[in-house]
Design a protein that fits this description.
Blueprint lengths: L14 E6 L3 H13 L2 E6 L2 H8 L17 E5 L7 H10 L8 E5 L4 H10 L3 E4 L4 H22 L2 H11 L16 H12 L1
Parallel strand pairs: 1-2, 1-3, 3-4, 4-5
Helix pairs in contact: 2-3, 5-6
């Protein structure tokens, strides 16, 4: 399955996230937050580079690795060239990667955009700036998807590896309530203010 084989020789407790954003500052922020939360992170600067990394660009020389293990893709919505929405559509059209959860990020809280992404198959939509609480939600999302995939395989060794993954270290970083408000709550609060 495209979600990855937890029995691979790499660290079983490390979740691999592909982060896509044209802003180097935003890439560094999401990378740091994910690493604090014990995730392996690969960052790329565009939707086109993400497709190349995944081997979905149609180029015979691209990575296209059969053993590529990505548990989650987090992408900015607004990028030059291939947008996050277009990247989402291409991933969901791919038989190899359609099961990987895709989360869209944006600094703009535009309800039709959010609904369009969710309809197309996004697992979540995060409002920037991304906070540590958002990253914790992302890890929960990955765990839920992995649990669902293991239900279909019902392998006892996979279950024990999943337990290992679930007990991976998470940060005890404490920040002010305002800094730790997940973007989903910020979006709801902001949409009430604008109504």
């Amino acid at each position: 399955m495209a979600l990855g084989d937890l029995s691979s020789s790499s660290s079983t407790s490390e979740l691999h996230v592909l982060a896509v954003d044209d802003s180097i500052v935003d890439r560094k922020v999401i990378e740091r937050l994910l690493r604090i939360s014990a995730c392996k992170v690969t960052t790329v600067e565009s939707g086109t580079r993400a497709l190349q990394y995944l081997g979905l660009d149609g180029d015979k020389g691209s990575s296209g690795l059969k053993d590529l293990k990505v548990n989650l893709i987090v992408t900015d919505y607004s990028m030059p060239g291939l947008t996050g929405y277009e990247l989402l559509k291409k991933i969901k059209e791919s038989s190899a990667f359609r099961e990987i959860p895709v989360v869209i990020m944006s600094s703009e809280n535009i309800q039709p955009r959010i609904e369009q992404c969710m309809t197309e198959g996004a697992e979540d939509f995060l409002l920037k700036p991304v906070k540590l609480a958002d990253v914790k939600r992302l890890k929960e999302l990955i765990m839920r998807v992995l649990r669902e995939s293991f239900k279909t395989t019902s392998s006892s060794s996979s279950s024990s590896l999943l337990s290992l993954s679930l007990s991976s270290s998470s940060s005890n970083v404490v920040s002010s309530p305002e800094d730790n408000t997940p973007s989903s709550k910020r979006m709801k609060l902001e949409s009430r203010v604008h109504d």
